[in-house]
User: Fold these one by one.
Assistant:
Number 1:
Amino acid sequence: MAEELKTVVLNDVHQQLGAKMVPFAGYNMPVRYSSDLEEHHTVRRAVGIFDVSHMGEFRVRGPQALDLIQRVTSNDASKLTNGKAQYSCLPNHEGGIVDDLLVYKLADEDYMLVVNASNIDKDWNWIQQFNTGGAELENVSDQISLFAVQGPKAADALQSLTDADLKSIPYYSFVQGTFAGAPDVIISATGYTGAGGFELYVPNEHAKAVWERIMEAGKAYGIKPIGLGARDTLRLEMGYCLYGNDIDDTTSPLEGGLGWITKFTKEFTNSAAIKQQKEEGIKRKLVGFLLDGPGIPRSHYPLVDENGEPVGEVTSGTQSPSLSRGVGLGYVKTEFSTPGSRIFVQVRGKNFPATVVKLPFVPGTEEVK
């Protein structure tokens, strides 16, 4: 018997808004409300709101909290100050990645980890096995709703709902407080679109009221609800990795272009082997590529050289709404990873020429390194 799909708190709201609902990461989620194209452009040009409450949240508290986070994550969480977040990953013992995640420092000895919905149980079990020092761990995923309000008009659309000066919150920073009348909301200047904006962590009991207030306040700025379809094309235009497609248990952080979140100033899971890989050099690398002409790359399409010899595989691909061209991410042999390299996407036996390019495909409004 198939496992029953979980639902987000606003499941009924999305259905009333006419969303097409699909199973995603064990949840019934809105994939689109109008069209992927329209929703994509809404976020790039104005402002949209995503319900991404399926994401997982873990609280890690106590004197041993930082030690545990340092042990299991690749980035250096000791650099975090209160009110800051960082992108990181959980390396496994075999050189791959358990998951990618965000680490928030809420207060001294008090952190929140935000993990992918499909990996909540996997990540929880993984982190638990390293908690030998007795840090206090709590899975609060089912208590929190998460809304991503993204786009160049996001700050203006939300400003009337909070006393915090939204435009003064630096990228990858956050404030906590009352938002749209709801207490204990985390307002985070993060996102997965490259269009700017905020992610709002809201206690479930206030989720519906906050959503309605956001929709009302954003009306003058053209806010629209946005589904997972546009979320995927937006993140792909930025070259952001999607776990399960572009990174997984078999891809190393270095191969996946995540060397910038892999800090050898400390020991972490499998750090010695990953450091050795860095010293010896990687044999394949995740790259972005742009099709020279027509064609849309899709996951698992072969990548070949001019002689038709295999050099890699597409991990994510789409028709970029902003560029009106096929774009993709994929792993290639390192000698084909330099921007300007010529590769070919093989579609049903036919080879479509493409060029490796420096990411992102579309300039974002922010960058954090």
Number 2:
Amino acid sequence: MNLLDTLVNPTSIPEHYRTMKQAELEERVRGIKARLGKKLFIPGHHYQKDEVIKFADAIGDSLKLAQYSAENKDAESIVFCGVHFMAETADILTTEKQTVYLPDMRAGCSMADMADIYQTERAWQELTSVFGDTMIPLTYVNSTAAIKAFVGRFNGATVTSGNAEKMVKWALERKQRLVFLPDQHLGRNTAYNLGIKLEEMAIWDPINSRLEAQVESDKIKVILWKGHCSVHENFTVENIQQIRSQFPEMNIIVHPECRREVVALSDYAGSTNYIIDRIRESEPGSAWAIGTEMNLVKRIIHDYPDRHIVSLNPHMCPCLTMNRIDLPHLTWCLDQIEQGTAQEKVIKVDEEIAKDAKLALNRMLELA
């Protein structure tokens, strides 16, 4: 069953998991973890709900969790508590003896879905007709396996929000210009930090197959895919103005998936791990407004009660697709694994796609 089929006709969770008390769900998860032991590994992304995170064997960003999964050779079943593209990456990096499961197959990523392989191949053809053999592609790890494979085939690499500057430098040492997928904001913020002017960046609109540029084509250095994170794009200049007015002493720290104008007005910007580390290393009594996903912000607030911490946007919702994975779905998935009936929750990347995607991942990992 592919992802589209799952979204159109999802396999519904049995009702008794919905009505089961939390204590019973937790007891069942603990029991299965104890019985399966080292054969089971549960990685949990930073943006997951606390009810899921409490059972995670490792917590981190998508790539780090995939690497943890690959390093854990004893694990036969990897239950990835994140979203679809993250589980794909884990499947690409793990062995044939390991099986990756996603507790709810509807847990996707709107950003990753903004660049499909058909749009990307068509865009590459059209851009090549304009720029010739002067381009190299980079893709954020928040992309589908098919996009990673495309980038791998054309000598490009993946990037994370933590190593994006290093990877953009690497790309521009190899070609005159780069195509950055699928998040325009991370691409723009990274290129700007490296001294590339905003007018030297163009946007590729995949819906209308159109290049949006302010200058002649020969002056374009970066082509940004018109995609974004639905969570981080909702932080605004008005949010910053409100914080500055209400709490003048407060530090503002945001993720580089935020809009350029938001990053420019913030005090700090960096990856999820950067944000976590910055708060951890800050002085007790310091004040912070954080521009990232709400589940993580709430967890940071809980972990550091001696600091004044708020969300940059107090009306921000958690990542809706990430939150499809909850304790009932986790319990259901573990029950099925133990019973040998979890086939519809398996994430398996086509062998040829996985081979090319691994090229893109390894080029990044070799540099990192």
Number 3:
Amino acid sequence: MNTMIRLVLENFTLSFLVLGLLVSGISLWKQKRPLSASIIIEALFAYFLLFSIGCSFFYNFMMHSFFGETAARYIGWEQSPFQFEVGTASLGYAVVGFLAFRGSFGMRAAAVVGPSMFLLGAAGGHIYQMITAHNFAPGNAGVIFYTDLLIPLIGFVLLGLQWRYQKAAKASANDQ
């Protein structure tokens, strides 16, 4: 059990992504049938924003701000004052993710674009560390590296799908 808890906490970005998918599934299961594409996308996107952006970045804030020594060791870094700066940036992204959960399209775009730039930059930093410092610590080259690429991809796909289906719904409403 301790190993399972450790894996969930160490791979928090994947854990929150899976949790968001599970909660989306439960939400959709409770919906009236038939389910339209826009209802499915709304559930997937809302819970993605809540868990993969809001909760995940809040967890990152907590780890870097209050458990910086542990976070640094897991990433393969030395402890640094920069840890707190990463933590507070993560807190900002978490707040935007929480606001976007039930927010407007513009708020949701902000909740995808800002954190995505941070994550893609972090992925670049991980690659650089793997090449130059041979840092293959789990917090640098493990699940976190792959989710630094996957979370932005999923976010932009869901944002594009929501835009597409909102536009189609507005056009359909105007035709009636």
Number 4:
Amino acid sequence: MSLKEKAVSGILWSLWQQFSGKLVGFGISITLARILEPAEFGLIAMLSLFIAIGNTLLDGGLTTSLIRTTDADQRDYSTIFYFNLIGSTILYALLFLAAPFIADFYKQPLLSSVVKVYGLILIINAFFGVQSTLLIKDMKFKQQTNIQIPAAIGGGILGIVLAKMGYGVWSLVWMGLCTSFLATAMHWIYSSWRPALIFDKACFKKHFNFGYKMTLSGILDTLYQNIYLIIIGKYFSAVQLGFYARADSISQLPISNISAAINKVAYPMFAEISDDVAQLKNVYKKLMQQVLFWNAPILIFLCVAADPLFHFLLTDKWMPSVPYFQILCICGIMYPLHAYNLNVLKVLGKSALFLKLEIVKKVLSVVGILSFISFGIYGLLYFQLFFNFVAYYINSFYSGKLIFYPVKEQIEDILPILALAGIVGLACYFLDMLLAHLFVPDLLRIAIIGISYAGFYYAFSLLAKLTAIRDFKQLILKK
């Protein structure tokens, strides 16, 4: 199988894995949102930082190093497996001890007991980290799909049953634990790899020397990605945090899934051609345009259709989430491009530069957040929108220099896509205003906007002869 065929197959299966699993999870979360109160989702959102940091410490750098190591063997895999297992146990113990302080920080006494149970996810996830890495490295996304969907369904059923029985926030806790447990069990079933009684210090040192910089970068990024949850949870109510967290989670359905799906393919694919800068630039350019071609219209459509979408799916109690959601959708348009620029640094072994850029961006971001917090949640959101473009410039400037693809050239390649998506979105916004004035039912309103947006976007893409649609036909449709 050629690199192109391998990439196309991997991307399609990865997209299917991401979206099928996330759509199942989305359906479950919508059902739970109709049963539970926003404040109960807000309590879980307060803990997302601690779980995310724990997972980053375990997976952020060493597993990335495994993927880029072409001659990794049993010594490498077993060493990382035992490190993850021991590390997760230590992290859980620290989280257990910190539980009362976390509850005091947020002024939510219930969090103390929730942390002690919910934190067990760290240990459970450590049992399948290497198996998951091997599936990604071999681009076996079909197997990952067969793992992810049953685990999500099993955990979701338990969560919904407990929510209907009145368990409140605990239904979300036990749903998370059940999902992780099922995912672990199925990874061991689908993967033939088993750890040996080996912990090789030389192997650990090799992966650690590369991985610790990536881990530190990952922690900085995790802190940044969750800083809004921390600030809103600390300075505003759990209800407002619940509204923000719901808006963020729905906006992340296309953002994180398109990004994560292609990123799973992009990193190992970039690693294969890292010695050929010209080919790396060409692949990166095509990938960037394809991602934006699909990501931008989806997010702008969601922004336009936000009001009937939230009203139909979540009922009136979640309508305060709508303006948060619209701003976050616009923020997410450029998000996947950050990851691909940073992938270039990783595959070229520039982990030190990667870390320096993360530090610079996060320092600038924290200064901005502290400056805008007095303007409330909207001040924070508009700053997030502004800084998203600043961060893209910083990332693309350095990665572009390495592959001779400067920022100006990148912008010239993506500007037609952004302009077309925005113009069609503006036209559909006025159409939606008309439909709302005519009291068209929510579901029909969503359908009309969606069909109109898709039709106009596709037609004008053909008329404009966008490079992205031509590449899509050649790569996917083979025309």
